[in-house]
Amino acid sequence: MTTSQKIAFGGGCHWCTEAVFQSLIGVEKVEQGYVASIDANRYFSEAVIVHFNSKCVTLGTLIEIHLLTHNSASNHSMRDKYRSAIYTFNDQQFTDAEALLDKFQSEYNGELITKVLSFHDFKTSREEITNYYFKNPEKPFCKTYINPKLKLLFKQFSKFVDQNKSIYIND
Q1: How many CA within 13 A on the CB side of residue 30?
Q2: Rounded to an integer, what is the distance from CA 72 to the centroid of its chain?
Q3: C-alpha 110: how far from chain center
Q4: Are 10 and 87 within 8 A, CB to CB?
Q5: Distance between CA 56 and CA 72 in Å, rounded?
Q6: Contacts of 124 (CB under 8 A, 6+ apart)
Q7: What is the spatial distance between Cα 141 and Cα 153, in angstroms, rounded to a whole number?
Q8: Radius of gyration of the chain (CA)
Q9: CB-CB neighbours of 164 under 10 Å
Q10: pLDDT tens digits, residue range 74-113?
Q11: Cβ atoms 114, 85 nearer than 8 A
Q12: Which residues is 35 bridged to in the sheet?
C-alpha cells in the first residue's frame, strides 16, 4: 500500500486553504487553483489539492482540519466561488470521506454543508498568487484572514503542525 495520497479541498479562499495545509507535517505538496466535479458541481471553484503521507497524517485528520478552518456549516451567497467540498480521487476515498464527514457532523451545532464530490478537473492558479501566505505574511489579507486560521490550527492540532511554520504568525 502506498503512503503517498492526494485529496482536494474547497471551502474558502484558496490562499487560506493553501496556507493551512502547507503548515502540516506529512503534507508533501499543496497545489492551489480551481477544482470542478461533475453534474451540478461541474463549474470551477477555489480549492487545493493536498498530497500527503498517510503514515504522518490521516485522511480523517485532514478532513477534520478542513472542517475547522473554513465555514463548513455556512451556506453563504459565495458558495459557487467557494464551494465547501472534499474532492476524492477514487471510490474508496469517496466512501471513506463520506463516513468521516458523517462522524464529524455530531461535533457541529449546525448541519455541515460540506459535500463529498468526485474530482474531475483542475486549473492551477497563476504563479504570482501561489504560496501566497508564505510569500506575503505581512500583507493585511494574511494578517486578517489567514493568521486566525493558523492560530486555531496550531492550538487544536499542534502535533500535526510543522513548528518551523509558526514563525510566520505574529501575535
Answers
A1: 25
A2: 11
A3: 20
A4: yes
A5: 25
A6: 31, 32, 33, 130
A7: 18
A8: 15
A9: 9
A10: 777 777 788 999 999 999 999 999 999 999 998 877 789 9
A11: yes
A12: 45, 122
The whole-angstrom separation of Cα 22 and Cα 141 is 17
Report the alpha-carbon angle 128-79-32, nearest 5: 25
Nearest to 101 by CA among 72, 76, 140, 133: 72
Q: What domains, with CATH codes, occur in the chain?
A: 4-168 (3.30.1060.10)
**What pLDDT, on a 0 to 100 scale, did the predictor assign at position 170?**
55
SS3 86: strand
**Cα–Cα dist 48/97, whole Å:** 16
Contact 124, 46 (CB under 8 A): no
Collapsing DSSP to helix, strand or coil, 154 comes out as helix
What whole-number distance in Å separates Cα of residue 134 and Cα of residue 117?
A: 29
Whether residue 8 contacts residue 87, with contact meaning beta carbons closer than 8 Å, is answered with yes
Reported pTM: 0.93
Could you tell me which residues are beta bridge partners of residue 30? 50
State the residue for C-alpha cell 510566520: 168
State the chain's mean pLDDT as an integer.
91
Per the CB < 8 A criterion, the answer to whether 74 and 47 are in contact is no
Alpha carbon distance 117, 86 (integer Å): 6
User: Backbone phi, then psi, for 41, in 5-degree steps?
Assistant: -110, 30
Q: Is 42 helix (H, G, I), strand (E, B) or coil?
A: coil
